[in-house]
Design a protein that fits this description.
Elements: H1 2-15, H2 35-49, H3 53-56, E1 57-62, E2 65-70, H4 76-88, E3 94-97, H5 100-112, H6 115-129, E4 132-138, E5 144-150, E6 154-159, E7 164-175, E8 178-189, E9 192-202, E10 210-212, E11 224-227, E12 235-238, H7 261-280, E13 285-288, E14 294-296, E15 302-304, E16 313-316, E17 328-329, H8 336-353, E18 361-364, E19 367-370, H9 380-409, E20 423-426, H10 435-447, H11 453-461, H12 465-482, H13 489-492, E21 495-496, E22 506-510, E23 518-521, H14 523-537, H15 543-553, H16 558-566
Parallel strand pairs: 13-16
Antiparallel strand pairs: 1-2, 3-20, 4-5, 4-12, 6-7, 7-8, 8-9, 9-10, 9-11, 13-17, 14-15, 18-19, 21-22, 22-23
Helix pairs in contact: 2-4, 4-6, 7-8, 10-11, 11-12, 14-15, 15-16
Organism: Listeria monocytogenes
InterPro entries: Phage_portal_A118-type, Portal_protein_SPP1_Gp6-like
Protein name: Phage portal protein
């Protein structure tokens, strides 16, 4: 009874204007949101969910009858968003911080919160709806938490055309036959970052309702929490790296398929028509009514000679036509090949509009398919992936700084808050590029003397500068250990190496019955020559390419180069004159 009285009083107050009811979050006077932006977001969301009423609810007249049905959809927005998400992020991502304590703390927080699986899912939502939000907070028990929100739950308060500095994030739920919305205001009050939480209650799910006491449902949440030591907001807004051509001054992103709506609509129409073709192209046979005889059973019932439920037969009045035919097959040939070719042509246009390579999406008798082969680095798909990855990488870095700041605030982390440039995010590119191709490219470049070993290691294996230096030292150590045991005489002949001359090179001459050819090789050149021979022996370098390289880079003619390569792989050593000091040649 008391609750009914209170509800009645509130209703009167609302009607008198003394108690304001808000229909939507963006109706709040603080919210700086454009209605058109959120209409677009709602449309992109419904397309992602597979049903947009304005497109898919069909109402038309056919043969004098009104037809109401739902048009079939390829659900290409969902397929596109999922493909982009898989391309941009997966569980193999690596996060490195130049601060061991900070890295250990951050990685533990991310693992505890299931960051990897959730991030991939919300990137998919973000690609579909034009963005998403990562929130960093604590649970009151010295645990840093990471959660997410979709684009339709975030409303900017202040911003420039690029970044959202302040926002309100809405979280709606149903409890005790009431609909509640928790609003989290992220604002700067002067130089102090402040989080304010409000609770709104409504009797219907379509209204924000009236502000009520936070203590009604949440005793452990403070209404206002100032965070004076924070250098940045505790939320991170990430959007697709696509210029917003719907609202040039909006900080909000747009869907990856925002500029392909006409093509999407056409594809759904073609897909629906393709299935209608099978439905309308079923076997149809006209049978004269005189052919349909009935027999009277003993109990007085009648039985038709053919199954009346068989939809292949249609009755008509009469016996025979002018050609003397009674049964007529009026089936229409199904144009499946023409439909498939047309749909594939439109899919190529769609792929171009969303920034993917032609052939990314294909359609056949088994349905819609996405490309699974390795993506070439020169392709449109690879360029789009790199473009979108930039904003995701920046967002992850900002999230890490927020994790450390929240950790220090609750005294769960005692180290320093790192700078953004000390954080590296390495995405696994195995989907977008062939690892073997990359490794072979840099191996060949290094063997040809076009790139230093350290740089080749970094780029081929995507490792840090310190790791590359460590690998380089190990490789050189292994090479020094292996060379003394090799026998190079079968390949180079007896090359005499006297002491170093004034400019630091080793004077050598080919002997052992060969035509004398004065040569001057330093240690690096001999190492390079050995690498070429070993590469040929291992099948990593074509014989003709190696021959050309030796003639071009070393003081040997083609005949001598052929003799050097003749027994490649047998191993060899370089003999020195007895009168000279022994020298190791790496």
């Amino acid at each position: 009874m008391i609750n009914q009285i209170i509800a009645g009083v509130k209703g009167v107050m609302r009607r008198m204007g003394l108690l304001k009811t808000l229909k939507e979050v963006k109706d709040h006077k603080k919210v700086n949101a454009n209605d058109e932006d959120y209409k677009y977001i709602d449309m992109w969301k419904r397309l992602y969910q597979g049903h947009y009423a304005e497109w898919h609810n069909l109402d038309y007249e056919h043969n004098g009858n009104r037809v109401n049905r739902r048009q079939l959809s390829m659900n290409l927005p969902k397929v596109t968003a999922k493909y982009m998400s898989k391309l941009l992020f997966n569980e193999k991502v690596k996060i490195n911080i130049d601060n061991e304590e900070a890295e250990e703390f951050v990685l533990n927080v991310l693992k505890t919160n299931g960051f990897t699986k959730n991030m991939e899912r919300y990137i998919e939502y973000g690609e579909a709806m034009g963005g998403f939000v990562i929130k960093v907070y604590h649970d009151g028990n010295q645990n840093v938490k990471v959660s997410f929100a979709t684009a339709d739950c975030m409303y900017p308060l202040s911003n420039d055309s690029e970044n959202v500095d302040e926002c309100v994030i809405a979280n709606s739920f149903h409890k005790n036959n009431k609909y509640y919305t928790l609003l989290e205001w992220n604002e700067w009050q002067g130089d102090v970052y402040t989080v304010t939480t409000e609770l709104y209650q409504s009797d219907t799910p379509n209204e924000l309702g009236t502000k009520v006491s936070l203590k009604l449902l949440f005793n452990d949440i403070e209404p206002v929490v100032p965070l004076p030591k924070f250098t940045r907001p505790s939320f991170i807004y990430i959007k697709p790296n696509i210029a917003n051509n719907k609202n040039l001054t909006s900080p909000l992103g747009i869907s990856v398929y925002a500029n392909a709506l006409d093509t999407l609509k056409t594809l759904d129409l073609m897909f629906d028509s393709y299935y209608q073709e099978f439905k309308l192209g079923k076997k149809k046979v006209l049978v004269p009514s005189s052919f349909v005889k009935t027999a009277v059973n003993l109990d007085g019932s009648t039985t038709q000679y053919f199954d009346s439920t068989d939809e292949a037969f249609f009755l008509y009045q009469g016996d025979q036509d002018a050609d003397g035919k009674s049964v007529k097959d009026i089936s229409v040939e199904i144009r499946s090949t023409e439909f498939i070719e047309s749909i594939n042509a439109m899919l190529r246009i769609y792929a171009m509009q969303v920034g993917l390579s032609a052939g990314t999406f294909t359609f056949d008798e088994n349905g819609l398919k996405t490309a699974t082969e390795v993506v070439s680095e020169k392709s449109e798909t690879y360029q789009t992936k790199n473009s979108h990855s930039q904003l995701i990488e920046q967002g992850i870095k900002e999230m890490i700084v927020s994790i450390l700041e929240v950790g220090k605030f609750i005294e769960a982390y005692s180290g320093d808050v790192v700078e953004l440039d000390t954080i590296t995010v390495d995405f696994d590119d195995s989907i977008a590029q062939d690892e073997d191709t990359t490794i072979n490219r840099y191996t060949t470049a290094k063997n040809q003397g076009m790139i230093p070993l350290k740089i080749a290691l970094q780029r081929a294996w995507n490792i840090t500068d310190a790791e590359a230096e460590e690998w380089k030292e190990e490789i050189e150590k292994d090479a020094r250990a292996e060379i003394p045991g090799n026998d190079l005489s079968g390949l180079l002949g007896d090359i005499e190496l006297p002491d170093e001359n004034a400019n630091g090179t080793l004077e050598a001459s080919a002997v052992a019955g060969e035509t004398i050819q004065e040569v001057s090789l330093n240690g690096a050149q001999i190492t390079s020559l050995v690498n070429i021979v070993q590469s040929v022996a291992k099948g990593e370098l074509p014989y003709n390419s190696a021959l050309e390289m030796i003639v071009a880079a070393f003081p040997f003619d083609e005949e001598k180069a052929k003799k050097i390569l003749a027994d490649a792989g047998n191993g060899f050593t370089i003999k020195e004159k007895e009168k000279t000091s022994k020298k190791e040649v790496d």
